[in-house]
# Entry
Amino acid sequence: MDILKNVSSAFWSTDVWLPPNITWDDIKPNSENKYTNFQHLIYPLPMALFLLIIRYALERYCFAPIGKSLGIKNTRTKKATPNEILEKAYTSKKIKHKQILALAKQLDWSERQVERWLRLRRTQDKPSTLTKFCENSWRCLYYTYSFIYGLIILWDKLWLWDINYCYYNYPYHPVSDDVWWYYMISMAFYWSLSFSQFFDVKRKDFWQMFIHHIATIILMCFSWIGNLTRIGSLVLLVHDCADIFLEAAKMAKYANYQKLCDCIFVIFTILWIITRIGLFPFWIIYRWKVIFVVVAVRIFQILPWIVLH
# Structure
C-alpha cells in the first residue's frame, strides 16, 4: 500500500501537472469559479448507455430502412454447413496447413473442401453490408453533430482565434456549461464505442480500435483533471472535422454510389491533411511543445524517486 501511495503522490505531483506555486486546492471547483471536477468523470458512463439506446433505435428504425431503400441487402454469402469438428477447430485458434491436412483426413474430405468450409465460416462472422452501413451512419451523424456543436460553442471563445489564450492565466480556467457538455458527451461517445465492440460483430482490428478508444478516454480524463479543457476542446474540434467525410464515403460505398464515394473521399483526404497534418501539429501541438517537454522532463525526474521509495 505504501508503494501505491508513493506512486500516486509522485504521479499527481503538482510539479508535474501545475505551474509553480500552485496546488490542487487552488483549482478546486467552488461557487465563484467553476473549475473542472474529477468526480464528474463518472457522468459519461450512464450517458454512454443512453447513447447506445439512441444508436440502436436509429439503426433499426431509421438507418436500416434508408439502407434498404438504397438497395443495400441484409444478407450474407452462403453459410458453411454445420460441422462440430471443424467448428471446434475454427474457434480454438488459428489453423495451420498441417491441421487442415489432419482435419481432411479425419473427415475423409479433400484439402480444398476443408479450406472452402473455413473460408465460408470466416465470411459468416463478417457483418452484412447493411449492418456496416448503419454503423457508419451513426458515426457520421455523431461526428456531424459534434463538429457543428463544437464550432458553435467555441465560436465566441477567445482561444479558438488565438491559441495563446489556452495558457494565459493557466490553470485558472473556469469551465462553461457548453464546454462541460461538449466534453461529457464526447467521452460518453467513446465509452459507448468501447462497450458496443463486445456486442457488435467482431472485426479484424477489434483490439486496435479498443485500445484507440481507451487511449482517447484516458487523454480526455487527464486533460479534464489538469484543467486543460481549452486545448482539449480544440483537439476534439480538429479531429471530428475529417471523420464526418470518412464515414460518409463508406456509406456511399456500401450503397454502390462509387463516384459519390470517390468525391467524398477526396474531400476527406484534403481535410485530413489540413487538420491532422497541418492544424494539429503546427497550430496546437507546436504551441504546447514547451509544456510537453517540461512535463516529460519532470516525469523522468521523479522516476528515480518512485523506484527508491
